[in-house]
Amino acid sequence: MATSLALCFDAPMQSWGIRSRGVIRDTTSEPTKSGVVGLIAAALGISREDDHAIAELARLRLAVRVDREGILERDFHTTQNVPTTKGTGHRTVVSERYYLADALFLVVLQGDEHTLSRIAAAVDRPHWPIFLGRRAFVPARPLLPRNGGPIACTAEELLARHSWLETSKSVRDLELAKGERVALRTVVDCTASTERAEVRHDHPVSLAEGRRRFATRTVLVEQVSLNYSMITTGDFSCS
Fold first, then answer.
1. In CATH, what number is assigned to the domain containing residue 114?
2. What interhelical angle do 113-124 and 33-44 show, nearest 10?
3. What's the pTM value of the predicted model, to 2 decimals?
4. HSE (CB half, 13 Å, CA atoms) of 83?
5. Residue 84 lies in a domain
6. CB 186 within 8 A of CB 233
7. β-pairing, 182-190 with 213-226?
8. Residue 80 counted as domain residue
9. Distances in Å between the alpha carbon of 147 and those of 5, 7, 168?
10. pLDDT digit string (tens) for 49-96?
């Protein structure tokens, strides 16, 4: 029987870069596998240099439900006195950094119960501070619900059964005015042979400074439809 763990990623700002090199730091529209693994590793107290432990976490199946699509924003960072490529002087470098504002995600991990139980305990009492993509982007509410923990179901089942994480009454009322169901985008790990599978280059092989390496994974992008009771409940539970 499959076992899954639900987490809530909610913050005023989040950033999930996949090609963050040079002066442009991007973000995807939902949490990346490398970002989620890095967050869990910090909670567990696993060093970035521990490739074996990182690989073990990366074997977990990842599924994401977008409970609120974020707004793509951009800011600028200025770094002064950067040496020139010729080493004959200094210059000022302006970098562009993208992030998601007001995004809300249900993040589900599927794997063995022992590992998921360790993760649940760690995100509740993290070894190192956890953040959503950048150190300044801290969670707005607990990642783990009260009395939360691994549940005997697949990642897909949990995405479809979990109540909506949206807390804004105005947003809920607006959705209810459209009908008794709300459709939410999902991104779920799948096999390469799955029809309509898409490639993501964010499977962490090493997160060590100076030698970060990533492999590709395949995901299936679909939607789940939540019924009236799951829209109105507003709690963090699976029933």
1. 3.30.70.2660
2. 70
3. 0.89
4. 4
5. no
6. no
7. antiparallel
8. no
9. 12, 12, 23
10. 999 999 999 999 999 999 999 999 988 666 666 677 677 767 666 678
